[in-house]
Structure formats: structure tokens, C-alpha cells
User: What shape does this take?
Amino acid sequence: MSELKLDRTDRRIVDALQRDGRLPNNELAAKVSLSPSPCLRRVRSLEEAGVIKRYVALVDPLKVGLEMLAYVSVKLEKKGQMPAEEFNSAVNTWSEVIECYAMTGDMDYLLRVQVEDLDHFSRFIMGKLLKQPAVVDVKSSFALERVKETTVLPLPH
Assistant: This one.
């Protein structure tokens, strides 16, 4: 995938919108030292190029009763054909999994799982994850404290 070359102004626009996606165009333009029309054109161009993928509301999981965050490493059976497609399809139906990455190393996948409590986590593991025929090993770690959380990517200067 080729990297789009962003100039300093584009990076400033992206940085500002990462911090506040609801920033009105006139305020954004002032922050990046542009007039509103050219600023809006640049934002549209960044959206069309896929640099800005979408705008979302970030919800505090604790405020909606999702108090437990777990990271789950999953190892799949390697005999025969790799069952990655079937596993990927299943993961995409599980609302508890908020991120999933195919990994290198000892485990094949890393899941970020957000649930209400230990009972909800147990139902997820026993009722969904371990019912996948290719899953041979699962290791879970629970977050004790949120030390840092950001959605802002460190853009190169």
C-alpha cells in the first residue's frame, strides 16, 4: 500500500481532527492557518484519499457498564488447511471483540475484549471462542488500570 505524501498543513489538519472530529471547519481553518474554503477542500481530499477513514463517537466503556477489558491470545490448529478465514468470520460476529489482530510468534491472534464482568467474559470464552473447532490454546490477561489511551496517531513531522 503506497503512503500518501502529506504536507505540513495536511498533517496539522489530520492531527486537529484526530483530537476533535467535530471541530467546525472555520475553527479548523484558523488552527491550521488557512481560510475556510481551502481547508474544507483539503479535508475532503484527505477523506477521499482514505487518510481520514470515518468519524466516530468514542464511548467510555465504564459509563455503559463494560468494566472488564481483557487481551486474549489465541492459537489455532495448524494441521491441514489453516482455518483463518473461518476464524476471522466468527470474530467479526462477536460484539465483545473490539479489536483483533493476526500475529507473529507463539499465538496466531490477539483479541481485545470488552465485557461487563467476569461472568460475561466466561460466557464469551466458553460459549463462543472455545466452540471454534480450530482453537487449540487461549491465554487471557486482564487490564488492571488504564495508564494511557489515545486514538491520536503520531504523524511524522
About this structure: Strands lie at 68-76, 97-102, 109-115, 135-142.
